[in-house]
Each structure stands twice: as structure tokens, then as C-alpha cells.
Amino acid sequence: MVVHSGWTGGFLNEEAYQWVRPVNLLTDEECQLPYAVGLDLNTAFLAAAARLVVGLSQPDHFHAPAFNPKIPGSWLVDLAHIELDPRLPSPFTPTGERPTGPAWFQTHTVAYAQELGYNVAPIEAYLRRETGAYLDRWHDRLKNAYVDTLADLGVTKDLDDRAFLAAMERHKDVDPALAAVLAAIKGTVKGASASCASVTRARTTRTGTGGGPWSARPGVPTSAPPSSARSG
Questions:
Q1: Residue 221, preceding peptide bond in cis (omega within 30° of 0)
Q2: How far apart are CA 157 and CA 131, in angstroms?
Q3: Assigned domain for 14 exists
Q4: Which of 47, 165, 166, 213 shows the greatest Cβ crowding within 10 Å of its Cβ?
Q5: Are 147 and 178 in contact (CB under 8 A)?
Q6: Cα-flanking dihedrals φ and ψ of residue 62, to 5°?
């Protein structure tokens, strides 16, 4: 753990959105609509783990490196210049607000900025030379368990949209024991995702403390003491 290292160079802070469009950006027509629709994608964090390449070695420190979307790590980049539709959340902050200056971002976030056609010029980076799809077996086992349990509860892949929604509405009543198994599978996924972000939450509750940018949200697994980060 590096939360007591005294690091003051900023932190990698990437989480699921906590964002609502500002009221002043709602149109008169939108304000008259009676409902707001929320969409929840089942096991979204599990799906994101499929074939995810993560760092397997200690981080190496680089100054002004060329960005490489294939290398897991944390990049200090200024994305404040990127112009996006103000009615949508910024994809670069968990609050959905536009970045205000240089900040630490993980590889996929910087790669998305590049895909949008913007120039990215990292100032610093902590990168991992050894990489691999570390979560594949974890993902495959939980995915198969989730799909198979849903099928046992009557939610199968061959259902059309209407039948799927009807099956999802009643699946918990089909077999309470299997419904408990399904909840345990989903809880395992959510618990693992929460563990990956636990250092970030611990850091935000301790003003002035924290580890380096590599520790705020592990690239799974990416925790490393600052003494082990090599300069390059």
C-alpha cells in the first residue's frame, strides 16, 4: 500500500458516472416530459473485463512519453481542450464535468480522447511493461454462471424483447434459491469492482494522503510501493 507515501502529484480518479444534466441545458420540451428513463446494463462491469489487458508488473516512470494505447498505465495528460456536446457528460471525469487542466487518466480513457480526433501529449506516465488478460478466467466463469442461472430461471438468449422483459420481471419468483444464487453472482462482480476502487475511496477520505497515480485505481493488479517505481 502506498497511501501514506506523501504523494502530492495528483491521483487517478475514474469511476462510474455520478452526473445529471444541468437544468439550464434542458429544453422547454424536455421539462414538460413526465418521466426520466434510467437504463441499467446487466453485469456491465463483468462485460468490461472480457479480454481486458492489464498490467502485471511494477510501474515504470516516464517523462513526456509518446502515448501508446496498448500499454496499461496511468498518464498525466491535459484533456481540458476537448470540446464536446455540453448536454452530455464528459467521458473524462466521474462527475461528468469538463477537465480543468492536467490530470491522471488510465490508458483506455486517453485512447478514447485520441479516437475522438484530439491530440494527446502525456506529461508523465507510470506504465507496466508486462501485461496480460489477467481477468479472463474470472470473467468466463462468472459469465457462464450468470447466463446458466438466468436460463434456469427462464431468461434465455432466444427470447424477443417483450418476452425477455416479462421473464426478467418474474424470474425472482420462479425459484427463490436460484434467485439467491444469481444475486450472489452479481454481488461477486460488484464486490470485485468495488475492491479495485477501494484505494481511491480511502484516499478521498484522508485529505493530503494517498499513493501515486498508479494506486488510485488498480489496473488489476497494479498496487506497488513508490520505491518500486522505476524511472525511464
A1: yes
A2: 33
A3: no
A4: 213
A5: no
A6: -130, 145
Please answer whether residues 67 and 74 qualify as being in contact, where contact means their C-beta atoms are separated by less than 8 angstroms: no
Residue 213: per-residue pLDDT: 54
Please check whether residue 201 lies inside any domain of the structure: yes
48: in domain: no
**For cell 501508446, what's the residue?**
68
The residue written with cell numbers 477501494 in the block is 198
Write out the residue range of the structural domain in which residue 162 sits: 23-30+58-231
Query: Within a domain: residue 161?
Result: yes
Cross-strand partners of 102 = 78
Span 8-23, pLDDT tens digits:
778 888 877 778 888 8
Q: What is the pTM of this model?
A: 0.73
How many DSSP H helices and E strands does the chain contain? 6, 7
Percentage of the chain modeled with pLDDT above 70? 80
- What phi, psi does 105 have (nearest 5°)? -135, 150
pLDDT of residue 45: 83
Task: Name the DSSP letter for residue 102.
Answer: E
Q: For residues 203 and 209, is the Cβ–Cβ distance under 8 A?
A: yes
Q: Is the pLDDT of residue 197 over 90?
A: no
